[in-house]
From TrEMBL:
DNA-binding region: 34-53
One Pfam short name: TetR_N
Name of this protein: TetR/AcrR family transcriptional regulator
Annotated HTH tetR-type domain residues: 11-71
Biological source species: Microbacterium panaciterrae
Annotated PANTHER family: HTH-TYPE TRANSCRIPTIONAL REPRESSOR NEMR, TRANSCRIPTIONAL REGULATORY PROTEIN
Keyword line: DNA-binding, Repressor, Transcription, Transcription regulation
Keyword DNA-binding: yes
């Protein structure tokens, strides 16, 4: 029983660390969120902080995972079974929110680059995240096509990949162009998928 209680306390402490670390990254930015800064935030030594994680890299990956969990919890319309309008509106809400915390955007882009290394902890996180998002978006797009709300000549999974590419690319651009309206880029992509002339008709003109 004591072991079970100790385990539960460890899980709770880990959650406390991640929530506090998320706030530090949002406030101080990626460069300001050193292990020392994060440890000070929760009253631990650096060694004490890393006791709860395998490495500094894993800590930052888990911070990003916590951000995603909070985003999804606050925007249930972006979860499984959503309509295309719910996907669009919910995701745009998330994008607008994240634009207000550039430190988290920088964390995302840096870990996304690190994911190119198969041995980096972010590799598995981004692979799982990307697959989950694309599957949800592709299903919502396919459903909308069946209702005549998205042009039928677009492959749903390809459209989902384009949506992800625009979203991820916009975050990279935001780092050097803070005035960029990321949501406008994503809204434009959704607009281009609305019924009307097919892409082939447009090219033939």
């Amino acid at each position: 029983m004591a072991r079970r209680g100790s385990y539960a306390k460890g899980i709770a402490k880990r959650e406390e660390i991640l929530r506090a670390a998320l706030a530090v990254v949002a406030r101080e930015g990626y460069h300001g969120a050193s292990v020392k800064e994060l440890a000070d935030e929760v009253g631990l030594s650096q060694a004490g902080l890393l006791h709860y994680f395998d490495s500094k890299d894993e800590l930052f990956v888990e911070i990003l995972r916590t951000r995603d969990q909070i985003d999804m919890a606050d925007h249930v319309e972006a979860l499984d079974g959503a309509t295309i309008d719910e996907v669009r509106d919910g995701y745009l809400d998330i994008v607008r929110h994240n634009a207000q915390v550039p430190g988290l955007v920088e964390l995302f882009t840096r870990l996304a680059a690190d994911a190119a290394d198969p041995a980096h902890p972010s590799r598995a996180f981004f692979a799982e995240r990307s697959t989950g998002l694309r599957d949800r978006w592709a299903q919502a797009i396919a459903d909308a096509q069946a209702e005549g709300r998205i042009r039928r000549g677009i492959d749903p999974m390809l459209a989902a990949r384009l949506l992800q590419a625009v979203s991820d690319g916009a975050q990279m651009q935001l780092l050097v162009e803070p005035e960029l309206d990321m949501s406008a880029l994503i809204e434009t992509l959704f607009d281009l998928m609305e019924p009307g002339e097919t892409l082939g008709d447009q090219r033939a003109r």
